[in-house]
Specification:
elongated, disordered N terminus, disordered C terminus, single chain, about 250 residues
Length: about 250
């Protein structure tokens, strides 16, 4: 049986696709009512232990107050410390811990930290709409605004452009493109802005990649410096995390 495939704007969004991928990685055993095991409470962890055959660990984990987040940080020494004395049990249970840690890393990488839509300022001191003269059908005239999303590992720029790049041809359909920028491959993040006698003029966050390519995010000028600072902070964290996982790989 062939499944019907339907692509929408949200399907290609980095955050949405990442969350779906994380849940597929986790599988049914590590997802309860749509929530990952890393967010479970102590009682939910206890029920999970019973379901995978570790009934004897339930009172031990209850006493130690082990919830889903604590599960992802367990190791052999901590298991011994909370009272799991049997070496074989610890070794077998660590296989579950390693799976949970992979789920936690995937969830962290795909966690949305910021999102915004491309800013399109009006013309002539903000008296004339951006989509003039087709003010009532802006998407058909100008195409749809880009959507920007920041996660712990990537910046996603989601484009939805008209198939035909001529005015008022949006009725012929759109082409969706998802542009993912790995934070560890960014060399610099700058910001710039236009000036205006009134209103909030256009600002730009300029992302320079190690390949020499540049990407631009069009935002309100009043937001650009703050967004650039957020991007730089998250990029530094991503580089540090990459060094910890794969030492010497990231420049």
């Amino acid at each position: 049986m062939t499944a019907k495939v339907s692509t929408t704007l949200s399907d290609l969004n980095e955050h949405t696709a990442g969350k779906i991928a994380t849940k597929e990685l986790a599988g049914e055993s590590y997802v309860l009512n749509g929530t990952l095991i890393t967010t479970w409470q102590v009682d939910e962890v206890a029920n999970w232990l019973v379901s995978i055959g570790y009934n004897d660990l339930v009172p031990v984990f209850h006493r130690a107050n082990i919830n889903g987040l604590a599960l992802s940080r367990l190791n052999d020494n901590l298991l011994r410390e909370i009272g799991v004395a049997n070496v074989g049990t610890r070794l077998q249970f660590m296989n579950e811990v390693l799976k949970i840690q992979a789920i936690a890393r995937s969830d962290w990488r795909n966690r949305m930290l910021w999102t915004e839509t491309e800013y399109r300022p009006s013309y002539c001191c903000f008296m004339i709409p951006y989509s003039f003269p087709c003010c009532c059908c802006a998407d058909m005239w100008c195409g749809r605004s880009d959507v920007y999303t920041l996660t712990n590992s990537r910046i996603n720029i989601l484009h939805e452009k008209k198939k035909w790049n001529t005015p008022c041809t949006g009725c012929l359909g759109f082409v969706i493109k998802s542009d993912n920028i790995d934070l560890t491959l960014i060399s610099d993040i700058d910001s710039g802005a236009e000036t205006s006698a009134c209103g909030d003029p256009l600002g730009t966050v300029i992302i320079s990649l190690m390949s020499g390519e540049q990407k631009e995010l069009k935002l309100r000028s009043s937001e650009c410096q703050k967004v650039a600072a957020i991007f730089n902070n998250i990029r530094e964290e991503a580089v540090v995390s990459a060094h910890l996982v794969c030492p010497g790989i990231v420049r």
